[in-house]
Amino acid sequence: MIAAVLSGFAVALLAPALAKRLGRGAGAVLALYPAALFFRFLSRVPAVVAGETPSASLPFVPELGISLSFRLDGLALLMALLVTGIGAIVLVYAGTYLEGHPRRGPLLGLLVAFLSAMAGLVLCDDLLALFAFWEATSILSYFLIGFEREEAEARAAALQALLVTGGGGLALLAGFVLLGQAGGTLEVSALAANAEALKAHPLYLPALLLVLAGAFTKSAQVPFHFWLPGAMAAPTPVSAYLHSATMVKAGVFLLARLHPALGGTREWVWVVTSVGAATMLTGALLSVGQRDLKRLLAFSTVSALGSLTMLVGVGTPAALGAAMVFLLAHALYKAALFLVAGILDHEAGTRDATRLGGLLPLLPATGVAAMAAAFSMAGLPPLLGFVSKELLYDAALRASPLPFVLVPVAVGSNMLLVAVALTVGFGPFTGPRGATSKLPHEAPVAMWAGPALLGFGSLAAGVFSGALSPFLSAAASSALGHPYGVRLELWHGFSLVLLKSLVTLVVGVALYRGRHRLRAFAERFAPLGALGPARLWRAGLAGLVSVAKGTAAFLSSGSLRQDVRVVVVAAVALLGPLLLSRGTFGAADALPSVRPIEAVLALLVVAGAVGAVVAGSRLSAVVGLGVTGYGIALLFLVFGAPDLSMTQFAVETLSVLLFVAVLRRLPRLRSRSAPRSRAVDAALAAAVGALMAGLVLAVHAGPLRSRLSGFFAESSLPLAKGRNVVNVILVDFRGLDTLGEITVLAVAALGVLSLVRLRLAAKGTAGAKEGGR
Amino acid sequence: MTFPFPASDLLVILPELVLTQLALGILLWATVVRKGREATLAWVSIASLAAAAVLIPVAARLSGPLPRAAFGGMLTLDRFSIFFKVLVLLATAVTILFSLKFVGTSSYPGGEYYALLLFSAVGMLFMASGTHLVSIYIALELMALSQYVLAGYFKRETKSVEAAAKYFVLGAFSSGVLLYGISLVYGAAGSLDLGDVARSLAATPRSSLLGVGIVLTASGMLFKIASAPFHVWAPDVYEGAPTPISAFFSVGPKLAAYAIFARIFFVGFGPRAGDWAPVLAASAALTMVVGNVGALLQQNVKRMLGYSSIGHAGYALLGLLAYASGTDARGENFGLWAILIYLAAYLLMTLGAFGLVVLLEAKGYATESVDDFNGLSKKNPLAAAAMLVFLLSLAGIPPTAGFVGKYFLFSAAMKAGWPSLALLAVLMSAVSLFYYFRIARAMYLVEGEGELRWREEPAVAAAVAVCVAGTLLLGILPQPFVALAKSCLLP
Predict the structure, then answer these.
(1) Does residue B411 lie in a domain region?
(2) Is the N or C terminus of chain A more exposed, i.e. has fewer CB atoms within 10 Å?
(3) Which chain A residue's Cα is nearest to B388?
(4) How far is B176 from chain A (nearest CA, A)?
(5) Which residue of chain B comes nearest to A701, CA vs CA?
């Protein structure tokens, strides 16, 4: 099973070659792969319905107790069948739809790879593997949405979808890590078995919120719903597959999958239910203002995903049963409608619902399929959509929190969706002929067969819904965590639920008849969309970019001076507080008194430093530095370290000479920086000076432990027969070091000599050349 | 005069000794090699590195049971050091492969270049082994001094010289800071041997002077791994230095710096983890934000990779932090383990990405903007796919090495009680998707205009292929490597 699913990635690699060789048939040939998987999964239905859960496991990192495990329970089976079945249909369709497109091969390959990732996602029992497939779907969808790469809109939409879903995926990962920590395992089945302890764990809430963030972004829940309509820039087969049947369902799937482990708490019920209900209503409200068939469908998909989320949030057996039925019903009709929209676009040259009409005689097969799907979406008996809507109302009515809120939301949204369904699947085929740019023909069989099959599926599943009961019960049971039987019936008898269905239909049809006025009304509110989360998102990205600009100018300007400033500020900020903590400097009276000569020398040092800073020319600055250096050397002398002092004198003299030799060649100091920037530098310099002074004082106050000075002081005379400890150290205790230093100096001198000679030689030849001229 | 250490101590540093000799030999040979035949030097350099790598197990076998201390506790040979030595040698060898055409076609002599790389490698090998603050410092300087020269190796290119100057000024500053910190620690602990320092720190009461010493040492380390706020040099240096050298800087020295960072702070300053952990935590947070936000807008790929490597340094700091909080209930310390895995992954993916930058280069200099990747998927699908693997890995997307590394790091941080930092890391990974995918977008969604500048370099292509294979292997079958890393932890 695992191998069969993962081999899709290999099949995907074959797609470009196949497309080149086979032309339009490539889609159909590639479709054999998901079709084979579909029948393979279908053959497992009896076993799964009987309560078996075939599973497999591969060790991944046993040190951490991580293994890759796969499980085929009812929920996984339902999703796997949808993924492979609709995948096969979409591949056949896409092969024809993209006929003549130069990059048809890569697109088919991406679709197959996506199919594999999606199948892997629904089958795995391990959260880490689930995350891997999850991100794979996000990445693949990036390339699928951005497929029409000449269009800037498509590229922007692709990136937006990637950032929202991929970023949400990373939140999911964080949530999984927390879950693993709280539950001690990353296997969903094991987490579910330990649900009570998990829900009581202090990490439960953060883990839950992170997981929900991941699921909500993927399933386009409010306030992350805006990426889905944008993603309609994808080619239509991609929208049909990713944005109706599979990828966007991954979030809902994850919620259902984790419901046994995490669900049922107050936090779960309130957050998930309210977000779902809000999404359901938002999607429905936004959809009626659209003209583009695909955008109509996209917003209605948002609404459908909202109702699925809401049902999983409610979490009662009835609700989860309704969710599973609706999951199936929605996948069937929405994929069909998307494919139909693609056909209309292809044949009539427009997707504008206001310009399409009266096409049934021209596209009979497509029209019939579209109507079947639309009626299912509208909830007309005897289609599956009707059955699922009944169950939805029933579940909403019996929801524990706030049925009086959920029921109006559900009924209201569905009324609007009836109008949308008819606008998309009924309007284009009836009434007067619209003003289309070209005369439409019936699409090729490969294109209408898919919607027809799906539309027929909606009808058959509705009529024979009783036969589906055991299968959907198995799915609901896995989402629920214990066995439960869903009752699917066309006729429930006269009830409140039936009344609601009737009212929904009647009002929905009325809304459809007044759809133009409705749209005009909704379009008047379009400017409000500017206040929506899409704008927030754009503002957030823009903010990030401007933060990036701002920080780049400050934190890495490319200017060395600015860089040094950053480092210096950081050093002062890090060390200053440490030094200022109590007890660093000891008692003030522990400091020795200052002799006049010391004070004079100190003033000399300070004067030299100040002189170097304010000097008007480089040479005078060097002189200032020299004064500082000699002052320090004199200080050493005063404190009884003549050898050190001599060394310092020598070093100072040498460096002044070097400075003069080098600086002589530089131009005069001309421009100075602005006074303000000099003031900043002065403040920084003062801060560093204070810091260093503090450090020296602190060193003086602290107890210094050195074994070495004692050792040298004691051993100097007896071991090395010398009274000058420094000399003894240099020539005796560390004689080898000194030898090494001398060698290094000698080598350096040789190097300098050769450089000087080279330079002289170069000058000589240059002079000779000039002379020759 | 008697040699103060047993001669067998020399066996411990056998690889370093041999590599030093070979590097000197190459330097000498370079004076007589004919112009245009310098590729031979490169291959000999690679052979030298291979010889050093082969000698590591020999040294381990001959010098006695591991861990084997040598030279009075100045150096040690343990599995931890071997882990880093192998990675460092690998990084250096790949850098030389990247440099082949670079140095060969430029008017700069190759011999010094390769010798400097090898000297730098020797420094890094010693860093991995150092257990005494002085030996560590000297090794660090050996590495750094070679690098200052390498950064400015293309001395007639303004950018290269500028990079070298900045690197040198700030690097010297950081060395000074580090040395100052070491001297304060010495003052407080009375020893520079890391084991002695730890014993002494455990016995002495808290003093702010010691705190200052530790923080200064930490600042020096943060500088070397390019962590905020001491990261400022990295983008400029990466952008300006010759591309193979940028690749080298982003892995080799960083790996070695992590080795000494871990060793100094855990073996030496472990008893004072409470003092330095907050500093590292603040730096980690800042580094992740600065690196990832800074990378957002970069048009220059090298500069972008520079910022991204800052971000990665921030992630890796999480591992150090996790390590600081001690062993978990199972007696395992997750943090260092995670760092080892992460650094190996980082090495593979960063070198791979830089390899593609090398392959895409025309004039041999920093002209590589993101737009240079436009339409790569059409012109060279394999190269585009390889780059995509590296980008996914850098962003931490499965099934790649980068994901495994990040997963380990983030879980380590969460386990160790830094969940807020782990969450920040996740958030910043999401931000990083944005800029990594700018390259993916250029490769796949944008049509290239004009000719793609593409260099046929089988050696580089082979190195990139190895990186791809490693990145995927580590991502799909991490188990053997994870077990290996576990056996290479510090005691």
Answers:
(1) yes
(2) C
(3) A139
(4) 12
(5) B209
Q: pLDDT confidence of A616, banded at 50, 70, 90?
A: confident
For B379-421, write each residue's pLDDT tens digit.
Answer: 888 888 999 999 999 998 888 999 999 988 988 888 888 888 9
Residue A457, CB-side half-sphere exposure with 13 Å CA sphere: 20
The whole-angstrom distance between B218's CA and the closest CA on chain A is 11
Comparing CA positions, the residue from B51, B19, B217 lying closest to residue B126 is B19
Q: Which residues of B touch A143 (CB under 8 A)?
A: 444-445
3-state secondary structure of B183: helix
pTM to 2 decimal places: 0.87
The whole-angstrom separation of Cα A574 and Cα B219 is 9
Residue of B118, B21, B121, B134 lying closest to B75 (CA atoms):
B134
Does the complex come out with an ipTM higher than 0.90? no
pLDDT score, position B120: 96
Residues of A in Cβ contact (< 8 Å) with B170: 560, 563-564, 567
- Residue among A66, A157, A80, A153 at smallest CA distance from A117: A80
Q: Does B428 fall in a domain?
A: yes
Residue of B426, B432, B477 to mutate when probing chain A, most A C-beta within 10 A: B426
Asked, for residue B310, whether it belongs to a domain, the answer is yes
Please state, as a whole number, how many other Cβ atoms lie within 10 Å of the Cβ of residue B82.
20
- What pLDDT digit, counting tens, does each position of A218-228 carry? 998 888 888 88
Q: What is the pLDDT of residue A588?
A: 53
Residues of B in contact with A702 (CB under 8 A): 187-188, 207, 209
State the pLDDT at residue A706.
Answer: 59
Q: What's the Cα-to-Cα distance from A39 to each of A71, A620, B179, rounded to whole Å?
A: 18, 91, 71
Domain span including residue B424: 276-491
Is the omega angle on the peptide bond into residue A382 within 30 degrees of 0, that is, cis? yes
Q: Is the pLDDT of residue B140 over 70?
A: yes
Through-space distance between the first and last CA atoms of chain B, rounded to whole angstroms: 36
Q: Are A563 and B170 in contact (CB < 8 Å)?
A: yes
Mean pLDDT of chain A, nearest integer? 84
Q: Which residue of B has its CA nearest to A569?
A: B229
Q: Which positions in chain A touch B414 (Cβ < 8 Å)? A: 177-178, 181
Chain B residue whose CA is closest to A136: B398
A674 CA to chain B: closest CA distance, Å?
23
Partner residue opposite A567 with nearest CB, options B170, B212, B419 = B170
Write down the residue that tokens 């895995």 correspond to: B341
Identity of the amino acid at A484: Y
B60: in domain? no
Q: Does pLDDT of A773 surpass 60?
A: no
Interchain pair A150, B187: CB under 8 A: no
What count of residues does chain B have? Answer: 491
**Structural domain count, chain B:** 1
C-alpha distance from B28 to closest chain A C-alpha (Å): 15
Q: Which long-range contacts (CB under 8 A, 24 or more apart) does A755-759 make?
A: none
| Residue of B1, B286, B445, B487 to mutate, testing the A interface (most A Cβ within 10 Å of its Cβ) | B445
Strands (DSSP E) contained in A298-419 are none
CB contact at 8 A, A454 and A369: yes
Mapped to the 3 state alphabet, what secondary structure does A158-176 carry? HHHHHHHHHHHHHHHHHHH
C-alpha pair distances (Å), B150 with each of A429, A697, B160: 73, 40, 9
Q: What is the pLDDT of residue B327?
A: 60
Total residue length of chain A: 773
CA distance A181 to A179: 5
pLDDT tens digits along A374-394 = 999 998 888 998 989 888 888
